[in-house]
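In practice, a research group might receive sequence data for several interacting partners and want a quick structural hypothesis before committing to experiments. The following worked case mirrors that situation: the sequences arrive first, and a predicted assembly follows.
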Amino acid sequence: MKSIQEISKLSVEDLQRIGADESIPVPQDLKVSLPERRNVRVLSSIAAAAVVVIGLGWFGFDRLSQPKDTFSDPYLAYAAVEQALMKVSKNVNTAADRVAESEEIINKVNYWK
Amino acid sequence: MKKIFAIMVLALVSVAALAQSGRDIYNKYSDEAGVSSVYVSPAMFRLIGKIPDIQMEDSQVNFSSIIKSMSGFYIVNSENPDIADMLYTDVKKFIQKGDFELLMEAKEDGQVMRMYTAGDDKTVTSFVMINKEESEVSFIAFDGKMNREELEVIIAEAAAD
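A structural hypothesis for the assembly, expressed as tokens:
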């Protein structure tokens, strides 16, 4: 889209040609090319390849860093997990006891106030 | 061009985020002298899911449903003071970097016990317990998709047992 200033600079012949919708001949010595999109495509390909390599590398690293199971018997594994959960529960119980003791102390202090 | 770099940075950040897990702590300490450790893999949990429900003789509470919804389990315990200190520091870093919420904390005479969970109101995706007493540190962590209410009720029931 041409601006008014650009249109005002056009010759009468050019205006007539545009009005008649005639094609404008391209000068032989004109050296203008469309923006190069090849670089963008190449960079995109490199980026895509890098993401794939990182992904595969991570997958490989993940597989290699996978520790070995401590138990080969699911029943033993179950028992170990349950024992650990019992330990967690025991700690909850200890914490609950502390809360009860604290409440008792607070109640005694409130009683003597 | 900026978009390409943004995608690459995002990919690297995702990889770095995935690298932070209980497994890293297990991998770092499990082979050290003076460390006892247990690992139960997702594959083993799939096997556990296929076995019938088990009721242990010394337990009144049935942990089956919770255990079957787990996908990874780690225990690292050390009585070696140097390793225990490092383990405690690493677990604290792991908790700070993760999306954990403090569930419970108890302190007494230098002993510290903290429990953390990650997930949402309904589901626990990760649970961590760290217990420090004198020169001993215990780290227990498990991952999965556990019903939060069920997990809390079962742990409380076992505590009252």
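Before designing any experiment, note the following. The CA atoms of residues 83 and 111 of chain A lie 42 Å apart. Chain A touches chain B through 39 residues (CB under 8 Å).
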